[in-house]
Amino acid sequence: MLTFSTAALCDAYASTKNIQIAEPIFQSYGAKPDFSGQISTLKIFENDTLLINTLEESGQNRVLVVDGGGSHHCALIDAELARCALNKGWQGLVVYGCIRDASQINQLPIGIRALHTYPLKTQKKNHGDRDILVSFAGINFRKDHFLYADADGIIVSESQLG
């Protein structure tokens, strides 16, 4: 497993403009605060149908970035989905939206960044987009770019760092 520090990566690569640094808007959940991998993206709003389907696929060496529109009206991830992600090998999740079951998620060895918690689940609607450019927190997240997250923040690069 690659060991990294986002601070050290910023020191080494920030002057090359090879990295983007996320605005500090996320809370950390899960028992694995440091994670990294190649990005897959989803753009959904207050529904989790595409999210469920995606997390049921192998996520080896990948991080799922979910643009939930920043909604504070429902939770996109719950403990069941977090366990599914863990079991399918996803390295971590970045959610521009909310999660629920935080106490249970915090016991799982997976890293999740989300805006907040919210107890209401999503509605089931069959819409959303996969592996498209999504933008939030000052970053353009693209499929197959690399994401690094630790206690200091989140950075994204076109190529693997370190």
Q: Layout of helices and strands, plus pairs?
A:
Layout (H helix, E strand, L loop, with lengths): L5 H8 L5 E3 L5 E3 L5 E9 L5 H7 L6 E6 L7 E3 L1 H9 L4 E8 L2 H4 L5 E7 L11 E2 L3 E3 L2 E3 L4 E5 L2 E5 L5
Parallel strand pairs: 3-4, 4-6, 5-6, 6-7
Antiparallel strand pairs: 1-12, 2-7, 3-8, 3-11, 9-10, 11-12
Describe the structure.
- This protein is of the alpha/beta class.
- It has a single domain, classed as Glucose Oxidase, domain 1.
- Helices cover 17% and strands 35% of the residues.
- It has 4 helices and 12 strands; from the N terminus they run H-E-E-E-H-E-E-H-E-H-E-E-E-E-E-E.
- It has helices at residues 6-13, 49-55, 79-87, 102-105; strands spanning 19-21, 27-29, 35-43, 62-67, 75-77, 92-99, 111-117, 129-130, 134-136, 139-141, 146-150, 153-157.
- The strands form 2 sheets. Strands 1, 2, 3, 4, 5, 6, 7, 8, 11 and 12 form a 10-stranded mixed beta sheet that branches. The protein has a two-stranded antiparallel ribbon with strand order 9-10.
- Strand 9 (134-136) and strand 10 form a beta hairpin.
- The protein is globular, with a radius of gyration of 14 Å.
- It starts with 5 loop residues before the first helix and ends in a 5-residue tail after the last strand.
- The mean pLDDT is 95.
